[in-house]
Amino acid sequence: MPIRIPDQLPAQDVLLGENIFTMESDRAANQDIRPLEVGILNLMPNKIETEVQLLRLLSNTPLQINVDLIRIDNQAPKNTPQSHMDAFYHDFSQVADKKYDGLIVTGAPLALLNYEDVNYWASMTTILEWAQRHVNSTLYLCWAAHAAMYHFHGVMRELKKEKFSGVFEHQVLDPNNELLRGFDPTFFAPHSRYGHIDTSVYNSIDGLNVVASSQEVGAYVVASEDKRMVFVTGHPEYDPDTLKDEYLRDLQSGQTPKVPANYFQHDNPNEPPMVRWRSHGSLLFTNWLNYFVYQTTPYDLNQLAEKPQPKR
C-alpha cells in the first residue's frame, strides 16, 4: 500500500527495510485519487517506536493514506528528541480546522493517575469533542479507550492491583462484525494495563457492542454501531520485544513486575518471546480502514456530519 508519510521520517527506512512501500509527498501529489486522511495523536513517550508500529499496521491496504502526526502539547517528550517533534509533528491548533477520514489515539503510561490529574486532560477532552465533528471514525487504544469511555459515557475504569501484562487468548463474539472479518474464532493479543472496564458495562451502553473479548482480561474490541468509534483495550501494534522491554524497564526501576503471561517460551524471561498476535493485529487495522473508514466516509470531507453526543 502506498502510505504517504512526511519526508525523512525515520520510520521510512525501517518500513522500507521490511519491504513496506511508502510514498514521499512529491510522488503522492501526482496521483489522481482522493487519499484517505488519517491523523495519529501519539501520546506515547517513545514517539518514534510507536510511529513505526502504527504505520506498519496502516500499510496493509491498497488505499493511499496521508498521515498527520499530531501532538497534544508542547511539553518536551520523554525518549524522543525535540528536533523530531518539531520536524514531523503538528500542533493540534495547526490541524483543528481539518477533517479526517480516520484518527488513531494511542495509549499513554498514565494508568495510575486520575484523568483530571493528567497534565493535558483539558486538551484531551477538547480533542475528543473535536473528533466528534471532524473525524469519520476514531480508533482509541488502551488508555485512550478508557479515557474516551470516561469522557463520553461517564464510565470510570477499575484499577487492578496487578497489571494485565502478557499475550492473552481472545474469542470472537460477533463474527458478523466487519472489524473481525477474517479472524479465527480464537486469537491472541497483547495487553499492558492496570485499567479495566467490565464487559457488561460496555454492553449496557446503547450503541456499543463488545465484539471480541478474553476470559482472562475482559473486553478487547468494542465498536459503536455507527462505526464512528472503536475502543481497543490492548496493544495489537506492539512489536515482538515491546512487552519484554517494558518488563525489563520495570525491573531496572526497582519494581517487582510479574513475568508477562503467555509471552516468553516456557514463561522464562531468558527465552525468546512467542509472537502470536501480529497477523490479527494487522487484520484489525486493515478492517477498520476498509469497513469503518473508507466505505463510510464521504468523498468530500466537508460533508462529514457531526456525530450526535453520546447519552450518559
UniProtKB/TrEMBL annotation:
Recorded hits in InterPro entries, A to Z, give: Class_I_gatase-like, HST_MetA, MetA_family
Q: Which domain of life is it from?
A: Bacteria
Q: Name one GO molecular function term.
A: homoserine O-acetyltransferase activity
* Pfam families named in the record: HTS
- Zinc-finger: present as a keyword of the record? no
Places the protein is found: Cytoplasm
Which sites are catalytic?
C142 (acyl-thioester intermediate), H235 (proton acceptor), E237
Q: Does the keyword Transferase apply?
A: yes
Q: In which pathway does it act?
A: Amino-acid biosynthesis; L-methionine biosynthesis via de novo pathway; O-succinyl-L-homoserine from L-homoserine: step 1/1
Per the UniProt record, the site (Important for acyl-CoA specificity) maps to: A111
EC nos: 2.3.1.46
Q: Which family does it belong to?
A: Belongs to the MetA family.
NCBIfam families per the UniProt record, alphabetical = metA
HAMAP family under this entry? Answer: MetA_acyltransf
The name this protein carries in UniProt is Homoserine O-succinyltransferase
Q: Which organism is it from?
A: Alteromonas australica
Gene from which the chain derives: metAS
